[in-house]
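Thanks for the sequence, V.! I ran Redoxin domain protein right away. Repeating your input here for the record:
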Amino acid sequence: MAIKQWAAGVTVAAFVAVGAYLYLDMGGHAAPESTFVLLDGSRQSMADLRGKVTLVNFWATNCSTCVAEMPALAATYDKYHTQGFDTLAVAMSYDPPSYVVNFAATRKLPFKVAIDNTGQLARDWGDVRLTPTSFLVNKRGEVVKSFVGAPDFPALHRLIEQLLAQS
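Predicted structure:
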């Protein structure tokens, strides 16, 4: 019985540790020096985004949570864009490009959309496999929080406001 309780405790502790890392990451570590190919064929690098607070969102058209969160991502972008906030939605490598283009056009996404054709971007950002996964990057290019699943948008807005207020 003691072994079962110990094993259950270790399992719970491991789950909490992984959850804390994924959901409460406030590491401040440098974002990968990635270059994204946007739907219009142009390129956007993380270096280009320095000086802005940026949300990098990995998503897929066949992900119901991703589709459901897109209106809130668009509203967040619209609310803060003029203050120095940007959003970059990165479609996963398995997502057919025609689906991504159609999704972005029919929903009139106001932010930049890229396709990770090779999967290298997902690998660079911590081997992202679950969607949606988002990273909030400060003006210095540091990841200050990551989210697996849809974020708590009121809490995200408060954090964006704090980061925008920083020099």
